[in-house]
Write a structure and sequence with these properties.
The chain is of the alpha/beta class. The protein contains 5 helices and 5 strands; from the N terminus they run βαβαβαβαβα. The chain has one domain: Leucine-rich repeat, LRR (right-handed beta-alpha superhelix) (Alpha-Beta Horseshoe). Helices cover 18% and strands 13% of the residues. The radius of gyration is 13 Å and the shape is globular.
Length: 112
């Protein structure tokens, strides 16, 4: 299971940080409406390219600040702020519906 590249845990309320924390090769992770996974579970996923955090209440700036994502969904995600995305210069796709991101957060994202 450690070689998984894509994992979709949308709405899953059973898999915890403990279950995914060793998936360091993961490139695509969807945690849409997942109320269990926290920063602790994703902090070592430095190969992540696509991350869906829509309706996620547990992931914060701390969990994503060192990722080099190309796609990030923050639909209705209130715990990621300008601080969390300001250095994500590799982003090609960013969904910002219903969140707390401002002009300050996206001003350096020239790759979009």
């Amino acid at each position: 299971m450690l070689n998984i590249k894509k994992l979709y845990l949308n709405g899953n309320k059973l898999i915890t940080d403990e279950g995914i924390k060793n998936l360091t090769e993961i490139e695509v992770l969807s945690l849409y409406d997942n109320g269990i996974i926290t920063d602790e579970g994703i902090k070592n996923m430095d190969k992540m390219k696509k991350l869906n955090l829509g309706h996620n209440e547990k992931i914060t700036d701390e969990g994503i600040k060192n990722m080099s994502l190309v796609s990030l969904n923050l639909f209705s995600q209130r715990h990621i702020t300008d601080k969390g995305i300001k250095n994500m210069t590799s982003l090609k796709k960013l969904s910002l519906a219903y969140n707390n991101i401002t002009d300050e957060g996206i001003k350096n994202l020239s790759s979009l």
